[in-house]
Amino acid sequence: MRIAMIEKILSALKTAGVEMYQITETKTESAELFFIRRSLDMQRKKNVCQAEVVVYREFTEGGKRRMGSAAVQVQDSLSWEQMEEMFRDALYAAGFVKNEYYELYGSQKENVPGSIKASDLEGRTLAEIAHCFTEALYAEDIETDVFLNSAEIFASTKACRIINSRGVDVSYRKSKIEGEFVVQCTAGQDVETYQDFAYEDMDTNALRRKVRETMEMTRARAEAVSAPPAGTYRVILRGACVETILSYYVDRSNSSMVYQKYSSFRTGCDVQGTDVEKDRINLTLKATVPYSMEGIPMRDRELVKDGKLQLIHGGNRFAYYLQIEPTGNYRGYRAPAGTVSLDEMRSEPYLEVLNFSDFQMDSFDGHFGGEIRLAFLYDGEKKIPVTGGSINGNILEAQKSLVFSSEMQVEKNFEGPLAVCLENINVAGNSKK
Amino acid sequence: MKVKPSEYLREIKPVLLRLRDRLLQEYPYASILASDSAAKQYAVSKTVTSVGMTGWMSGRGFVVKVYDGSCYGEYSFNEISEEQIEDIVAKIREELWPISEKLPDCVKKSVYAMLEDEPLVFSDSTDYEIDPQEYGDEAIIRELTAASEAGRSYSDKVLDCRAFVNYQKYSKLFLSKNRDMEQNVLWMAGGFSVMAARGEELKSSYRGFSNLGGAELLEKMKEEVCDVAKVALELLESEPVQPGEYDCVCTPETTGMIVHEAFGHGVEMDMFVKKRAQAEQFVGKQVASNLVTMHDGASAAREVATYFFDDEGVLAQDTVVIDKGILKAGISDAQSAMHLGTAPTGNGRRESYQRKAYTRMTNTFFEGGQDRVEDMIASIDYGFLLEEPSSGMEDPKNWGIQCMVSIAREIRDGKLTGKIYSPVVLTGYVPDLLKSISMVSEEVKLGGGGMCGKGYKEWVKVSDGGPYIKARIRLG
């Protein structure tokens, strides 16, 4: 009789002399469709089961108490003997990992079990989910000069179980649908826009809306012929860029950055500095899985209120060092609507960027930037589409005068204002006006 | 020494052959890619040391590709035994093909011919000097700890120094009706990231190292950590660049990023199939200065993306993409090549057995020229030496450039002034930049410290590089 992989792991850990461990077993199943224009080019099915086992070792060196760890990946095709050898090797390696001592996260009796909103993807087959979203994807593909060039759809279910030597034994199952599509427009210039998507509900209308908006954006890009003149602009950033801008504050308040002194954020500090001239930031961390990778129950938590930091967040180890409550690592966050509408933002000259090739934020130095794929330039008299050039700014300067829109956006990992306005941002563009 | 084959794959091969034969009873074409991979990463900084296997690059797994007479489907899984063969065949029949049963009316299935399956039996391994597994966790952590301490003690302005290495040792089997191929590969990469603080702003300098081989890389890394720390301190004095177009000299690393991001992605021929790459219209035309000759191929260099055959069983090649400024050819996976009526170039790569194969770059670089670096710098009245590429994004459709570098060293009257600007975004139109290349150094260097994504996913190990080049570039 075959024994379950977890039982085999536990038995091999015991024989290898491992007393402290964490096991994360993940079973993933997916149905995948790949389209070129209106043809299905390939279909795939995936069914895999793996486990990560982290082996811990406590030791003393030079009078200092240490906690070492080493991670190994195992699967059922490994024999019991192979697993045992891997765990022995990992235990040996952990003896050279001289991290300051910390305790593993332990099961807390008073804990409220982690939970997230029930998804209506559950109870449907992966093929059924993939079909529904394929329908939604192509429902807006009805024009001739702007159309879906290609797309990929991944419907998946992940079953996760987390066990550790301090009594944690939690599990959850999660389904999602994600993918990407490219819209091409041949009216005028031949241009395209890449867009990704991810949903945890049967919100096929959200995908339809995204396809429609991307088609409109791509049509506008086909009319854009030149880069904006180089200079300093009042810049309106849209969509995913708002999430990227706010990621600076989420990253900087993470316990790993604080403990390693990469961030000076402290609970109660003014995250935007003291001389804020416009909007103050509000942020809430959003639980997207019921348990963290360490089995910590996840719930929504207030991170920043009116510009003041409410929480240092993160996993067990750095929380232990900082003597704060471990929250688990968050992937999602939300921000409330601002008070200024997009139309009001547009009442003065602006450069409104709808799409970058890749907008990036460096949370270490605060620098953000990217190459402009589509923007609208309004000089006070006329509005023209522009493409090319790049934005190069720093949040440490820009954060004093952020203005968030009253219009909202909802994505898988972010809910918040649709746009943010920043002052005096450098734009590299055409040198000739 | 040669990398040893996977014992597991050798043991399981008879079962895989029976699965192949069973599939060939139902399908005119069936292939199996089997892989056994162990990837491990080590990192040491001031307060954090970590060691562990890299989850998404490690493990044993299989991908079956079947052809039903008109189109292809794939099934990825990671457990197999004699008893499971019928179950796998049933899953392909009952769970793979039904995914496409209810497509919208406007969507049809592509019709493909059967992949070529010329007979081929092959087996080879790459070489290494020191097996990282034998070298041991203790020695690797000890060397990284020494490097991290050396970086931190360079100056009290240094906040931290992270020293890291990672390696992957993999074995692959490709089995089809007529092919029986085996390869065993080991690569190792690593680097230093040194951080220095200027108030809330942290500036960091990075240097990567890589080889097709093993822990002999650690010796190569040893001497350079203090140089990285020196650059991190220099960055504390940096300021933003005045946006504009400048004469620039690019280091081999920066050249590599331009080769890879700005041009390489644009000649991935699955993009030709989708009509997403402008390069398709430029085959046979001038796209770069006649000083430029560009290669891509798993057999074009000995670096981290070197292998003997790709994930579709096509032998590795050295493709000349640009020859003296003329675009000659793209690179392709087998299915894209079949669609386009061209020969596959051995560039069909998967992130792992769990993912689809796409056309991917391997070792991508410009050939060297005849200029000396000092002459290149001396030829510039006002411009920059661009160092430390940090990231880039492709735009095959419109040939827009987005590349970021951490350091632009000012050149005035043919000399480096010592002034540094950072960070810097390179933008512009790819052929404009490539046609503006006016000097090319003799020295060519490749590096494979990073990973390459297709869009924002499908990560594979690549190397890129080339000579120092002089070009006219828009900076911001």
Summarize the structure.
Helix content of chain A is 21%, strand content 39%. By secondary structure, chain A is of the alpha+beta class.
List keywords for this structure.
heterodimer, A: 433 residues, alpha+beta, PmbA/TldD fold, 2 domains, 6-stranded antiparallel sheet, 6-stranded mixed sheet, 9 helices, 20 strands, 21% helix, globular, B: 476 residues, 3 domains, 8-stranded mixed sheet
Describe this structure in words.
The complex is a heterodimer of chains A (433) and B (476). Chain A is an alpha+beta fold and 433 residues long. Chain A has two domains: 5-217, 2-Layer Sandwich (PmbA/TldD fold), CATH 3.30.2290.10; 231-428, no CATH class. In chain A, 21% of the residues lie in helices and 39% in strands. Chain A is built from nine helices and 20 strands. Chain A has a six-stranded antiparallel β-sheet with strand order 3-2-1-4-5-6. In chain A, strands 10-9-8-11-19-18 form a six-stranded mixed β-sheet, covered by helices on one side. Chain A is globular and about 75 Å long. In chain A, 50% of the residues are buried. The model of chain A has no long low-confidence stretch (mean pLDDT 94). By secondary structure, chain B is α+β, with helices and mostly antiparallel strands. The model of chain B has no long low-confidence stretch (mean pLDDT 95). Chain B is globular, with a radius of gyration of 24 Å. In chain B, a hairpin with a 2-residue loop joins β8 and β9 (201-211). Chain B folds into three domains: 7-39 and 50-121, no CATH class; 124-171 and 185-235, PmbA/TldD fold, CATH 3.30.2290.10; 244-475, no CATH class. At the A-B interface, β1, β2, β3, α2 and α3 of A face β2, β3, β4, α2 and β5 of B. β2 (39-61) of chain A pairs parallel with β4 of chain B.
